[in-house]
Amino acid sequence: MNINSGDWCMFNAIDLTGVVRIEARISARNTAEKTIEVRVGSTTGALLGTITFPGTGRSTYATAYGNLDTSNVSGTQDLYFVFSGGFNVNWFYLETESLSVSDNIKDDQISYYPNPVSNNVTVLIPTSKFSHYSIFDISGRVNKQGVITSEMQKMNIDLSNFSKGIYLISLKGNQLTKTFKLVKN
């Protein structure tokens, strides 16, 4: 996506529950500082946070991060990104925090492979704390959902009909969510 100063984009009905940070893969045209304001409701709505990053040069991509304060919003909201400076965006990713410290599962206890994936992804789950999974595209649209049974420790998910791009796999249980990035070739 080629972005100019003053441009903005909106993502419909994004669940902001537990969202604490945004990550973006960006290539800036020059070395001047650029920003992305993350707002809720409109381009002038409540400011949740800002990503600020230096220019990288046209063909060099870098990952930039920004903390988000979602304490004054709840549930599903329309999310607006307001841009300052000229750059290209490869992808955005919203990061959530665990809802319960006692139920926290380390990311290294859950694994998935291959990544990037062509047809099937295998997810290894060493715990029965998850009840279902969802796979989202970069716009937040659910592309696939399924149930995780308590005896399941390994899932093979067919992604052969998915388009190339960045996806998020979200494993959910009672007061616990783990989300991982997946690249589809």
Automatic annotation (TrEMBL):
It comes from the Bacteria. Residues 1-95 form the CBM6 domain. Keywords: Signal. Pfam families: CBM_6 (PF03422), Por_Secre_tail (PF18962). SUPFAM superfamilies: Galactose-binding domain-like. Signal peptide: none annotated. The keyword Signal applies. This is Carbohydrate-binding protein. It comes from Flavivirga aquimarina.
